[in-house]
Design brief:
The complex is a heterodimer of chains A (about 300) and B (about 300). Chain A has about 300 residues and is α/β, with parallel strands linked by helices. Chain A is built from nine helices and nine strands. Classes of the chains: A alpha/beta (about 300), B mainly alpha (about 300).
């Protein structure tokens, strides 16, 4: 029950073409929220979709899992209203998952629908509405209920608060965290909102160009980053401490300035790149970042 | 279906009937040809023609005839046929069920064929190309030519369907196929586009991620939503199918409304022509409203907007 869920060599590539993500080894712990951050195009969403088995048509993905069967995954998307069949009331969508995915006996369905609704804080009248009749927060709660209806072991949450105001976003993530802890779920939370990830997640993984460059507890990774990319990403956030200062920019590489496959993917943009960056340092137990010239001292 | 919707349908239909009746009346006044001369016969003396004109009421000024025609319509009367001397309403009532059955069957064929073609197109590249070619062919060939081809092969050569005479639905099968092909192609393209759009949509990706089976996603989630754009087209096509029956009824010798209209045009039988035009005209708002009801059933958001 408490053993970690391991997904080995998670790889995503254009069909018959360039590799976009990985290979990544993903270790997920029951009852924990794992944050994934990185700029747009870093492969966060593709990684989640690979784990959920729903990559777009032109993209192929693969991973290995030592567990048999592999842990059940469920994904919650950025646009919660898009999650639902627009012809159906929320309750019918929930019933479909319970009857046709979980194969629950019809006599148990109504009770289970009520349980799920209570778990995420939906009332009976909200269950009987169409998704487009619900507020953003309510529809996101309904989406969480849908995902939970499949009784997943791993919940993949892709930017689920980006369409909500900060307070509501915090509330939804708080709910997700409580559910994760109570039910031993592993949650993978992808977000651009670094402070929110720092607040909710147990650990943070920084992706760049589909590769993991740094990971660790939020207090370490986001407060004292070691990889040059993580440091620049964190410095790009507006901060009260640096009021009046210009935000630093991460330089854009010259055209064709892509890193060699074995090199650090951030090398072409890195202001602190050294010759050794032509080969990415391997992971070992002593470090939580892959950088030859890490940020020194306390960082930020 | 609310009271507001029913009243709106009634007012809409009444407006269209009035407009179509008015336009058809005035257009027929300026069309060359003298109905009295046609009814009196080619060799009739001018005095006979005048007598017939008076008998048909054509010697009365047109504004008076127009008021008569419109007030008659309001009472549900289409007048009396110049040639057959029977109430036009009776003629229409006798022919309308035949044309309606033909158009209904054609609609059924075109919807079924379009859904099957659109689903077939998703089975692979070769299937998609086959469907596209079939669509182009259906667009390209005129109905009367397809009708003749069907008649000669399935009617004369194989003898599966009656060529002339006979009653019942069996005689309507070939003409309905001829009538449906063009429409099936338009519908198939629309449903194909709808399927492609829906298969990419977020809720389909979500259903896949939740573990809903591919077959269930295709049939229960995707197809009804892919049919939504097609419903509006079907509603318009239904009106055109009634009117389009004119040519096909002629080719297959079916005594429907289209054939009645064509004969009436040749005989300058104005009340019959006007009546047929009004019936075809009423069909469009009626089918459009039925289409709205079906759309509302398929798409709750629209139903909410309709309230």
């Amino acid at each position: 029950m408490n053993s970690p869920r391991l997904f080995r060599a998670v790889t995503v590539a254009l069909r018959g073409g360039r590799r976009l993500v990985g290979p990544l080894d993903v270790t997920l712990h029951p009852g924990r929220v794992h944050g994934v951050v990185g700029e747009s195009g870093s492969g966060k969403t593709l990684t989640l979709r690979a784990l959920a088995g729903v990559t777009p048509e032109n993209i192929e993905s693969s991973w290995e899992c030592l567990e048999d069967p592999a842990p059940r995954t469920a994904m919650i998307f950025q646009d919660p209203a898009g999650f639902f069949n627009p012809r159906w009331r929320v309750e019918r969508s929930l019933r479909e998952v319970l009857v046709h995915v979980r194969r629950l006996a019809r006599s148990h369905v109504a009770g289970r629908v009520s349980e799920l609704a209570a778990l995420v804080g939906l009332t009976g009248s909200e269950l009987h509405r169409y998704p487009f009749e619900l507020s953003g927060g309510m529809v996101q709660r309904a989406a969480i209920a849908m995902a939970l209806a499949t009784e997943p072991e791993v919940l993949l949450a892709d930017e689920i608060t980006s369409a909500l105001d900060p307070e509501l976003g915090e509330m939804i993530l708080g709910l997700l965290r409580t559910i994760a802890v109570d039910r031993g779920l592993s949650v993978v939370l992808v977000s651009h909102d670094l402070p929110l990830v720092a607040q909710i997640a147990d650990d943070v993984h920084v992706l760049y160009e589909g590769r993991l460059v740094e990971y660790g507890p939020p207090a370490e990774v986001l407060a004292a980053p070691r990889h040059q990319y993580t440091a620049l990403l964190v410095q790009s956030l507006p901060s009260r401490r640096r009021r009046g200062e210009l935000l630093p920019e991460i330089p854009i590489p010259a055209e064709g300035g892509e890193a060699a496959p074995e090199a650090c993917p951030f090398q072409p943009r890195c202001p602190a790149a050294v010759t050794a960056c032509a080969h990415m340092p391997p992971w070992d137990d002593s470090r939580t970042y892959r950088c030859h010239n890490p940020v020194q001292g306390d960082g930020l | 279906m609310t009271l507001r919707w029913t009243v709106s349908l009634a007012l809409h239909t009444a407006g269209v009937v009035f407009l179509v009746a008015t336009v058809s009346f005035f257009l027929l006044q300026i069309v060359p040809g003298d109905p009295a001369a046609v009814v009196a016969g080619l060799d009739a003396a001018p005095a006979t023609v005048e007598a017939v004109r008076a008998q048909l009421g054509l010697d009365v000024p047109w504004p008076v005839r127009y008021v008569d025609w419109i007030s008659g319509l309001a009472r549900g009367s289409f007048g009396v046929s110049y040639v057959q001397k029977t109430p036009v309403a009776e003629l229409v009532a006798r022919r309308l069920p035949i044309t309606a059955a033909l158009a209904g069957l054609a609609l059924l064929f075109s919807i079924t064929a379009a859904i099957l073609m659109a689903l077939l197109s998703r089975l692979g590249r070769a299937a998609a190309t086959f469907v596209r070619v079939m669509e182009y062919a259906s667009f390209a060939f005129p109905q009367f030519w397809i009708g003749l081809l069907l008649l000669s092969y399935f009617g004369l050569h194989l003898g599966w369907f009656p060529v002339v005479g006979s009653e019942g639905l069996q005689r309507l099968v070939l003409p309905a196929v001829a009538l449906s092909l063009g429409n099936a192609a338009v519908l198939s393209r629309t449903i194909r586009a709808g399927l492609a759009e829906q298969l990419r949509s977020a809720h389909v990706v979500a259903a896949r991620s939740l573990g809903v089976s591919r077959l269930r996603i295709a049939v229960v989630h995707v197809l009804p939503l892919a049919l939504i754009p097609a419903v509006t087209i079907v509603a318009i096509q239904a009106g055109y199918l009634l009117a389009g029956a004119i040519v096909v009824e002629q080719v297959f010798g079916i005594p429907g409304l289209g054939r009645l209209a064509l004969t009436a045009i040749g005989q300058r039988d104005l009340p019959v022509i006007q009546a047929v035009v009004v019936v075809f005209g009423v069909a469009f708002p009626l089918f459009s409203m039925i289409g709205d009801v079906i759309l509302g059933a398929l798409w709750p958001r629209l139903r909410q907007q309709q309230r």
